[in-house]
Structure formats: C-alpha cells, structure tokens
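User: tokens in, sequence out, please.
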C-alpha cells in the first residue's frame, strides 16, 4: 500500500513541479537507496528483472532508486534527466498473472530508458504489452495486484492506471494524488484499445455513455480494506487546500499525516483498524501485511535542475528527509552505505533507524516528543540548502549523528504507557524474525 502525489508549477509556491511518495511494505522488508550510473550495453545483453529476463536497452540513464532489497525494481525513484515516478498497488476485477514484469520492474526500466515523463509513460505501456504485468508483489505475504503510477518531469505529469492488459492515462492539470484504488473516471487522455467495449461485454456497464473506468474495473473489497478512499481523500484535500502555495516541506508534512485522530497529542500507532498516509504496521490481516511505510521520497523539478530528498528509512514521522543529488556521482554508494538484507545489520542505515523507530513505538506520544522539534529544525536546514555533493554528504553525516543521539535518548526514557498486548506481540515477532537487538 502506498500514496503518491504531484503538483505542477501552476500549483506550487515557486513554479517548480513537486512530487512525493510513501512506500508501504511489510515491516521487515528493508528498503535501501541505490544508485546505478549511466551505462552503454552490448547489443546482445539482457537484464534479469525480478522474475523474467528481457533484452537490455543499448543505453541506460543514471538512476537513484528506493527499492525493497529482494527485487530488481523500485518503489520510487528518479533519473538523471529529472524524471520521477512512483507506483501503487490497485485491486481490479481482471485475472492476476504470475509471469511478466512487476510494477516495480516497469518503473525501474522506464527510469533507465526514458528522459521525459511522456517517454517513460509509453515505455511502461510498451513493456507491459510485450511482456505482461506480473501481479506478484509481496515479500513474505502473498498479495496480488495491478499497478497505478504517477510519472512526472519538470514540465508535466501523468497518471497511468492499469487493470491486467488494460490501461488508461490522465494528464495532470494542476494537483493529483493516487492511492490503492483506481481513480480515473469517465474522462481520460489515452486508453488501451477495447477498454470500454470490454467492460460493456462483461456487463460492468450497459453502454459507452455509462462507462466509468474506476467503477467498472475496480475490485471493491480489497480497495476498501486498503483504506484507499480515506487516504486519497486526505492527500487530495491537502493538495487542493494548499494549491498555489505548495512547498517541499508541505509534501513532507502530508507524508507524515496520521489522519484526523493523529492530530491528538495522545495518538498512538496501534490505534485504528485501517492505515493512514504515514502507515504503521500492526497485528491483524489488514495492517499486518504490507502496511508499514518503509521509505519516503520528495522531488522538486525545474527545467534547470532537480532536487531530491529521501528518508532512506521507515516511518517518516520518526525519520528525517535528507538531500540527494546526481552531482555526487560515484560518491552516492559511499553515502548510501551497504544495501540492506532480510535481517538487522548495524552497518545499514535502514536497519539502524529501526532501533529508533521501534523504540519510539513502545510509547509513541512520549518518545517522539523527545526529538521531534530537533528533527524538524535540522530538516529545515536540509530543505533550504544546496545540492552540492559536499552539502549532501554533510547532511547525511549530521542526520546519522542525530539519529544515534535520538536513539540513545529514546531508549533511556522511561515508558509511561505501553501499547496493548496484541500490538506488542506483533512487533516482538517482527523483531525476532529480523534478529533485532533488544529494545527498551
């Protein structure tokens, strides 16, 4: 489950295009930041994707990706040409195929091969048509889904929603967000051949005049329990209310949103049945399998360049957005550090942050208050600074040092009110599975 947002230059404070995404995966599904430099490939070269192997492009662009450790593809990312992208799981009435390219594969391949949002859009459509859309996107949990995407560059943005081999495109006019449900209705800018006729033949609508893509193709039960409607309403309302004044800091704010009840100083992540934009895993079939925000990204796109901020960690409400720049080139792997694996590794930033994140969960209202203001002040400097390699390296070093101090502070603070038994047992099981050190 995820949420992706975009605001064009007519809706932002400075005329830039803003993009943001939370990637929600399983609690122990570590998601690392990785950099792949531009490359020229042999004409007979192939590339091994998550489940299938396909011919490699003759040339590929440099990309920065936030990707689950076990897959080829990414949950979100950017390329050196300033194209950004994020995807959403969507649940449809069409059969789920178990071969082909996953939605995450399609994103990485498009970012590597396309230097504009328009090219990236049709790269996805072409690859999906040629190799099919594989619906296997889960890590430990078996979950099958199709995909929706927001694709943007400094000039324009598109929403692409799919249902098996069918697809529909909406060009963004000002602001737009997507969640885990089909959202395009009776108006669109492009669509796969036979889209409407197929729905009429299946009896999903009586005529072309009644056709509405989301209502016809959407599977309602899984869409409802993903809390797609509530989260989409939250992000859409936020963008509309701030239209014309939107900044990267606003995007960080909405990615940390815990809903109406989350505004209370006594709010705790274990509360509620359904997930929020800043998602926190819990026990049960809904929030237990794929309902933890495992990584977050913000992009600011201009014709003369782009700026990116990634958490590189789970739970943006407990973490910090750090600037990332393609100008750093070969320094990026050093700054990002080792890629994560399935279990705790103190060398890996994502897993080190889990010591802080999971300690905060033991008494969220008390412990987040121990460093939230410091985090916000430090992050404000990161948003206001430049994009030089030196500044990026300084920010990552300062963030790492701050998180180490916050972890010490949080773990030494008394727990005033522990979460409920089922919530504690859920996280204890996750910690054992990941070989996490003992938390206090």
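Assistant: Sequence out:
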């Amino acid at each position: 489950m995820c949420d992706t947002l975009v605001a064009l230059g007519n809706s932002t404070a400075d005329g830039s295009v803003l993009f943001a995404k939370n990637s929600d995966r399983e609690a122990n599904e570590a998601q690392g930041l990785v950099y792949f430099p531009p490359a020229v490939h042999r004409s007979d070269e192939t590339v091994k994707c998550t489940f299938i192997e396909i011919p490699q492009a003759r040339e590929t662009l440099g990309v920065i990706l936030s990707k689950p450790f076990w897959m080829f593809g990414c949950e979100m990312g950017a390329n050196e040409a300033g194209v950004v992208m994020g995807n959403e799981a969507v649940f449809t009435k069409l059969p789920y195929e178990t071969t082909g390219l996953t939605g995450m594969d399609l994103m990485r391949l498009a970012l590597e091969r396309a230097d504009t949002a328009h090219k990236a859009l049709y790269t996805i459509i072409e690859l999906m048509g040629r190799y099919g859309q594989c619906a296997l996107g889960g890590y430990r949990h078996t979950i099958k889904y199709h995909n929706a995407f927001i694709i943007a560059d400094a000039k324009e943005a598109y929403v692409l929603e799919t249902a098996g081999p069918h697809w529909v495109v909406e060009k963004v006019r000002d602001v737009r967000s997507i969640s885990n449900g089909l959202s395009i209705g009776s108006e669109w800018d492009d669509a796969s051949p036979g889209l409407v006729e197929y729905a009429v033949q299946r009896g999903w609508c009586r005529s072309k005049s009644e056709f509405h893509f989301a209502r016809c193709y959407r599977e309602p039960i899984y869409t409802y329990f993903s809390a797609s409607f509530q989260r989409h309403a939250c992000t859409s309302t936020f963008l509309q209310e701030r239209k014309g004044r939107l900044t990267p800091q606003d995007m960080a704010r909405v990615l940390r949103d815990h809903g109406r009840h989350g505004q209370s100083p006594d709010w705790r992540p274990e509360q509620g049945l359904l997930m929020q934009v800043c998602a926190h895993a819990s026990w049960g079939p809904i929030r237990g399998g794929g309902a933890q925000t495992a990584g977050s990204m913000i992009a600011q796109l201009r014709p003369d360049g782009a700026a990116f901020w990634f958490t590189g960690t789970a739970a943006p409400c407990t973490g910090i957005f750090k600037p990332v720049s393609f100008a750093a080139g070969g320094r990026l792997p050093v700054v990002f550090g080792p890629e994560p694996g399935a279990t705790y590794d103190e060398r890996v930033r994502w897993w080190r942050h889990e010591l802080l994140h999971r300690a905060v969960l033991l008494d969220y209202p008390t412990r987040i208050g121990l460093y939230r203001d410091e985090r916000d002040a430090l992050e404000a400097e990161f948003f206001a600074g430049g994009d030089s390699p030196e500044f990026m390296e300084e920010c990552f070093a300062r963030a790492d040092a701050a998180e180490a101090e916050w972890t010490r502070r949080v773990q030494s603070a008394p727990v005033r009110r522990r979460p409920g038994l089922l919530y504690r047992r859920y996280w204890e099981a996750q910690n054992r599975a990941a070989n996490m050190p003992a938390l206090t």
